[in-house]
Design a protein that fits this description.
Mannose-Binding Protein A, Chain A; single chain; seven-stranded mixed sheet; binds calcium ion; 151 residues; 7 strands; 3 helices; alpha+beta
Length: 151
């Protein structure tokens, strides 16, 4: 007779998806976004169209929670300026993150003509800009690559 290991618990699809969700949640919250990947979008859109594009095709516009991410995002930029997920002074991140990290350019944000409610990365720091401006942008994807397999 063949030896059957019971190390592999045979679970139903529902259980499996639930388990995968839990693991994914753990990866994105407990670890330092190990699974976060950045995607440069070489298309000029308004801030809200860029946000929508990222939400449909990836997770969201990038959020920048610390200097490490700030550097990482700068490395992924192919052009400046580009939209990031910060908007609507008092500033909020599009993905709901509540990081206090900020990297404003000198004398910014200036909310020029009271019309600047969206934030673009320009060169090495940030500037508030009109949301209707068309900029390139950077999306991120936090989905981990957990293989779903069930019978
Ligand atoms: Ca400005």
């Amino acid at each position: 007779s063949t030896y059957k290991s019971n190390f592999f618990y045979k679970c139903s699809c529902i259980e499996f998806f639930y388990l995968a969700e839990l693991i994914q949640h753990f990866i994105s919250t407990e670890t330092n976004n190990i699974s976060k990947r950045y995607f440069w979008i070489n298309e000029s859109l308004t801030w809200s169209r860029a946000q929508n594009y990222c939400r449909v095709n990836y997770t969201d516009l990038v959020s920048i929670k610390n200097e490490t991410e700030n550097q990482e995002i700068m490395k992924n930029a192919k052009n400046f300026p580009f939209w990031i997920g910060l908007f609507n002074n008092p500033w909020k991140w599009s993905d709901g993150g509540n990081s206090k990290f900020q990297n404003w350019r000198d004398e910014q944000p200036d909310n020029f003509h009271q019309l600047e409610k969206c934030v673009a990365f320009s060169q090495s720091n940030w500037n508030d800009d009109q949301c209707s401006s068309q900029n390139y942008f950077l999306c991120y994807n936090s989905k981990s690559s957990i293989l779903l397999y069930c019978m």
